[in-house]
Specification:
- The structure holds two protein chains of two kinds.
- By secondary structure, chain A is α/β, with parallel strands linked by helices.
- Chain A has helices at residues 15-31, 46-57, 74-81, 99-107, 150-153, 155-160, 179-189, 206-223, and strands at 5-12, 34-40, 63-69, 85-90, 116-120, 137-143, 163-167, 194-197.
- Chain A has a seven-stranded parallel sheet, sandwiched between helices.
- In chain A, helix 2 packs across helix 8 (206-223).
- The longest helix of chain A has 18 residues, at 206-223.
- Chain A is globular.
- The N and C termini of chain A lie far apart (62 Å).
- By secondary structure, chain B is α+β, with helices and mostly antiparallel strands.
- Chain B has a domain at 3-69 and 104-115: hypothetical protein PF0899 fold.
- In chain B, the strands form two sheets. Chain B has a three-stranded mixed sheet with strand order 2-1-6, with helices on one face. A three-stranded antiparallel sheet of chain B has the order 4-3-5, with no helix packed on it.
- In chain B, helix 1 (3-16) crosses helix 2.
- The chains are: A alpha/beta, B alpha+beta.
- The A-B interface holds A 2-16, 94-96, 98, 126-127, 130-131, 152, 155-156, 159, 187-192 and B 1-2, 5-6, 9-10, 13-14, 17-18, 23-24, 27, 31, 36-38, 74, 87-90, 98-102, 106-116.
- Strand 1 of chain A pairs antiparallel with strand 6 (108-115) of chain B, so a sheet runs across the interface.
C-alpha cells in the first residue's frame, strides 16, 4: 500500500492578483495617477455619479475612466460623450474586475495626462470586494432604493471600502430608508469609512464628496 | 460568482507544487477560507471536479476549514471572535465600545496537499 504524503504549501490563493495589484500601485506612483475603484450593485448610479463628479471637478483634476461591463459599451459611450478619456473592458461574463484586467484598461489610457482614473467596476456587491484592483482608494455607492440593511447583507464590501456614498437622497421622502441607521451599520463594520450623502441627479452633496476626492488626489500626486 | 476563478487558482497552485516525477496523484487539498467569504464549499468542489479532469488532481477532495472573523476593539485593543451573524451588531465584549476593526476573516490560503 502506498503511503499518503503531505506537501506543505501555505500559499495565498489570490497571491498572483495581489502581487499584480501592488505592482500597479508602484507604477501609478511613478506616473502620479490616482486610481479609484468604484463599486455598487447594478442601478445604484455609478455612471451618473462618475459624470457628476467629473463635471464638478472640471479644471482641477484631469480624469479618465475604465468601464467594466459584462457585455456592452453603453457606459463608456456616455462618458466619452462629455469628452472624457474612457476605456471599455468587456468582462465577458466575469462578475468583477481583477488587477490583470485593470492593467489592460490602464494600458489604453494616456496616464501622463491624467491625475485620476476612476474604475467603474461590475455592478455587484459580492465579488468585486474580494479582488484587489490596484486602486489607491475603494469607494462604494449604496442607493436609497436598495435599503438601509445592505451593510448587514454584504459586510465584506462595507469592510473593504474607504468611502461610502449614499446616493439618490432625493428619493428619501418616498422611502423608509433610515440614513442614520445605514451610517451606524456601516461604521460598526468599518469605523474609518468616510460617508457622504449625495444625489447624482440633483447634485446635492456632490460638492463635499468632490472636495474630499480633490484633496486626496492632490495629496497623492504631491507625495510622490 | 467568482468560484470558478478561485478554483482555477487553487488547481494551479496545487499542480505547481506537485512535480509529476514525484507525485502520482493529489488526493486532497486543505484550504483555509475566512468566514466572511461568500464562497460556497459545494460549488468550489463542483468547479474543481470540472477543471481538474485529466490532471494529477482529478478526483481530489477540497477540505475547507473556515477561519473565524476576528475583530480588535479601537478603544481597549481587546481582540475577540464573532460569528457571521454577529456582524449585525459588533460590540467589544470587554468595554462595550462599538468601533472595532476587522483583523481576520477574509483569508484564502492553501495549507497543504495530501499526495501519493
Amino acid at each position: 500500500m502506498e503511503e499518503i504524503r503531505l506537501i506543505e504549501i501555505k500559499e495565498e490563493i489570490h497571491a498572483d492578483n495581489t502581487e499584480k495589484a501592488n505592482l500597479l500601485r508602484t507604477q501609478l506612483s511613478k506616473s502620479k495617477t490616482f486610481l479609484l475603484n468604484l463599486m455598487s450593485s447594478p442601478g445604484a448610479g455609478k455612471t451618473t455619479t462618475i459624470l457628476k463628479t467629473i463635471e464638478t471637478m472640471q479644471g482641477k483634476i484631469r480624469t479618465g475612466v475604465i468601464e467594466a461591463d459584462i457585455d456592452s459599451m453603453v457606459d463608456a459611450e456616455k462618458i466619452a460623450a462629455i469628452g472624457i478619456e474612457a476605456v471599455q473592458l468587456r468582462t465577458g461574463g466575469f462578475c468583477h474586475l481583477d488587477a490583470f484586467m485593470v492593467e489592460k484598461g490602464l494600458e489604453g489610457l494616456n496616464l501622463d495626462n491624467l491625475d485620476l482614473v476612476i474604475i467603474e467596476n461590475v455592478g455587484n456587491l459580492v465579488c468585486p470586494a474580494e479582488f484587489d484592483t490596484g486602486a489607491i482608494k475603494n469607494v462604494m455607492i449604496l442607493s436609497v432604493p436598495e435599503g438601509d440593511d445592505k451593510p448587514l447583507k454584504y459586510p465584506l464590501m462595507f469592510t473593504v471600502c474607504d468611502v461610502l456614498l449614499i446616493n439618490k437622497i432625493d428619493y428619501l421622502s418616498l422611502s423608509d430608508f433610515n440614513v442614520d441607521a445605514a451610517i451606524a451599520r456601516a461604521k460598526n463594520l468599518n469605523p474609518d469609512i468616510e460617508i457622504f450623502t449625495i444625489s447624482s441627479r440633483t447634485g446635492e452633496g456632490i460638492e463635499k464628496w468632490t472636495e474630499w476626492l480633490v484633496k486626496e488626489v492632490n495629496y497623492f500626486i504631491h507625495q510622490q | 460568482m467568482h468560484e470558478l476563478q478561485v478554483t482555477e487558482s487553487i488547481l494551479n497552485i496545487a499542480l505547481k507544487h506537485s512535480p509529476p516525477d514525484k507525485v502520482k496523484k493529489i488526493i486532497a487539498i486543505h484550504l483555509t477560507i475566512g468566514e466572511l467569504s461568500e464562497l460556497e464549499d459545494e460549488w468550489l468542489q463542483h468547479y474543481f471536479d470540472y477543471l481538474s479532469k485529466n490532471t494529477l488532481a482529478q478526483g481530489a477532495k477540497l477540505v475547507i476549514e473556515r477561519s473565524p472573523i476576528r475583530m480588535e476593539c479601537n478603544s481597549c485593543n481587546h481582540r475577540f471572535r464573532i460569528k457571521r451573524d454577529g456582524i449585525k451588531h459588533i460590540e467589544c465584549p470587554q468595554c462595550r465600545h462599538q468601533q472595532c476593526t476587522l483583523i481576520s476573516g477574509r483569508e484564502y490560503h492553501i495549507k497543504h496537499l495530501e499526495v501519493l
